[in-house]
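TA notes, week 10

Several of you asked for a full example with nothing omitted. So below is the full record: structure tokens for the whole chain, then the designed sequence directly under it. When grading your own attempts, check the secondary structure regions first.
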């Protein structure tokens, strides 16, 4: 029953950084040294990437993704490009940053340790501030499902109060095997359960990737590497989570979907998917205005959100 005394949930304000902050590192695929700066930005301006060597700016938007081979890349040749944006985008989601400018002096975001945790630390060091504008979110109104017969991948999004994901991976090596994870993905849960999960790869693929101009900056300092004989990991420190592999796939999913331009309110189910499928889901979602609407984000949308062990029900939010 409606209680007239019950207060309306507080609208969440947009956030940006208190001030600029920089770091340097290596591009995962280019292998080049790169310096990155994060700068505050005005309300309602969103996230944008800017090359300091050319002055070209590209919005962090799914429509600007031009390559999804092992990363999400913004911009197109011969102009400036911005590669491997997904780990940073996931960190910006985890820090509830709506507006920021990302400056780079090379064509790729530094990989750091292969996770989102260093970027969250960088943002926390800079600090964040509320802005005089309500935070907006994209509420999913209709189920959208995509299947890829080529690789057995499938991804769907359904209406839901907050942002949640159920993800399954299945690799033909006992080091990974089949892993499942179901999580409510409010920003706090992302920080606690997902942000530290590192990217991963296979020793036997390294030479071919480098010949194709990829993974030239990869090392045991920024990736989990599975031994060619399937006997285990090359990383002496081991895993950060028993299921770090599927957690990193969720990290990529969060970063790719934050390219929608605002947080999503919906429930994701994904099986064996990657950057290409994540981007295709956003194209399908926004292909019809009846699939979604923009709403002001309130505290109630993520109230009580925490990791859950049970799978997300397919009919949730209906």
């Amino acid at each position: 029953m409606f209680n007239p005394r019950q207060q309306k949930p507080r609208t969440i304000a947009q956030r940006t950084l208190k001030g600029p902050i920089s770091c340097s590192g290596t591009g995962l695929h280019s292998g080049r040294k790169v310096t990155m700066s994060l700068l505050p930005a005005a309300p309602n301006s969103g996230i944008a990437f800017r090359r300091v060597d050319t002055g070209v700016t590209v919005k962090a938007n799914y429509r600007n993704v031009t390559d999804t081979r092992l990363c999400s890349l913004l911009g197109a040749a011969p102009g400036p490009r911005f590669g491997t944006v997904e780990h940073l985008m996931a960190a910006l989601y985890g820090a509830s940053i709506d507006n920021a400018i990302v400056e780079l002096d090379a064509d790729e975001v530094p990989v750091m340790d292969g996770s989102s945790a260093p970027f969250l630390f960088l943002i926390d060091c800079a600090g964040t501030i509320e802005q005089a504008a309500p935070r907006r979110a994209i509420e999913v109104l209709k189920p959208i499902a995509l299947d890829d017969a080529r690789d057995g991948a499938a991804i769907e999004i359904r209406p839901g109060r907050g942002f949640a994901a159920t993800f399954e991976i299945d690799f033909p090596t006992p080091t990974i095997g089949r892993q499942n994870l179901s999580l409510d993905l409010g920003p706090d849960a992302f920080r606690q359960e997902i942000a530290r999960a590192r990217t991963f790869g296979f020793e036997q693929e390294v030479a071919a990737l480098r010949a194709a101009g990829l993974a030239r900056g990869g090392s045991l300092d920024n990736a989990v590497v599975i031994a060619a004989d399937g006997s285990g990991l090359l990383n002496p420190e081991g895993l950060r989570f028993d299921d770090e592999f599927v957690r990193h796939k969720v990290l990529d999913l969060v970063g790719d979907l934050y390219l929608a331009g605002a947080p999503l309110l919906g429930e994701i189910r994904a099986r064996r998917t990657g950057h290409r499928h994540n981007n295709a889901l956003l194209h399908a979602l926004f292909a019809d205005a009846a699939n979604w609407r923009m709403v002001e984000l309130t505290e109630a949308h993520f109230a009580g959100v925490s990791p859950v062990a049970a799978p997300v029900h397919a009919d949730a939010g209906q």
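The first helix runs from residue 86 to 94. Use that as a sanity check on your answer.
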